[in-house]
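User: Small ask, check this?
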Amino acid sequence: MEGKKRLVVLGGGESGVGTAILAKQKGYEVFVSDKGPIKPKYKRVLLNHEIDWEDETHTEEKILNASVVMKSPGIPDKVVLVQKIRAMHIPIVSEIEFAAQYANATIVGITGSNGKTTTTMLTYHLLKDGGLHVGMAGNIGDSFAQMVAEQNYEDYVLEISSFQLDDIETFKPHIAVITNITPDHLDRYNYQFEKYIEAKFRITKNQTQEDFLIYDADDEVITEWLEKNKVKAKLLPFSITKKVEEGAYLEDNTIITNIDNSIFTMSTDTLKLEGKHNVKNAMAASTVAQLLKIRKQTIRESFETFQGVEHRLEKVLKIQNVQYINDSKATNVNSTFYALDSVSTQMVWIVGGVDKGNDYTSLLPLVREKIKAIICLGIDNSKIIDVFGAVTDELVEAGSMIEAVREAYRMAEPGDTVMLSPACASFDLFENYEDRGRQFKEAVRKL
């Protein structure tokens, strides 16, 4: 790849601009092209680095002469321009792939349908507290490529989505984590769950016997795939239902991790995070920390100071003894299942958005047991109404977050919980899930 000097970046967001900066530093001629508008903050960065760019158009003659193309993860393969690039046999890489070749560092790569952000932030917290010179990037926060260009960390913890894994060829994390695999983004994978599973397992495809794959041994999708496919990396499972020889398991509310006959134990009471899924996230993170030789006492102390992730089961306020929880990051059914399962009170549930091929039926037992009212917050709520209309006392539609929160305030009684856990993407009414979560918190504070 060293001799290929013209890099075209499709998409002028965080990953695209970061890749452009790194490529320029490495001697590439760089051109950034975005079919939509590039945000002013990114335009300023491109101008400061004297990088050529365009937005609200794709000029094909400036793109199809590339030696290599970096495609932002949000752009699907079915886009005509992407198909033209592939037809001309121009290599398409992801930001993760491009940046990793220049990062002389230990990489921890974390993927999964749910829990990957919490696990990434928790792992980073443990490693940083343990004294490692570590950066956190990928699908979270800053661009990995820009970090490689400007920070030169010795270790990286990367949150990696299936979209980012789609365009890797040589990328190899030393430690890979798969938190779980449940149906998500099926609209991107022709509604074939198998293709989505394959995308997730690309995280381990280039690993060797010197590397590690940490995974949820309670997840049937993962364990079935591993039974049928050979993985070179050393397998380190974690489980809350059974004892494992090497890896992590739960016994009498104690997390026990065994790596190379080094035993680490920690009470689940140490965790500030609630719910079974967070016990699993803690198991994955502590396994990484042990592999990277963080002191056991440091790991325990770090768990006590970890505050959790914004927009993930985030307690906002208690008003008239009603707890308001922001779980805007729940963009799929499985994530919402965890959220509803973690609360013991009766709930008013705010749900809806852009459906990604969701099957809501797994939520029916929880809805029957815990949900007293549903507020649909999306442009098209017909599927949610069809599934839940007959099993809840009250179901209404809201056209804005302010309206949804006011309805919830009207419906909730002392002792209840109001939960925003949409199970859907946010792009119909909001910029992204962060915008949706912030609007929820703002509306709650104005009550």
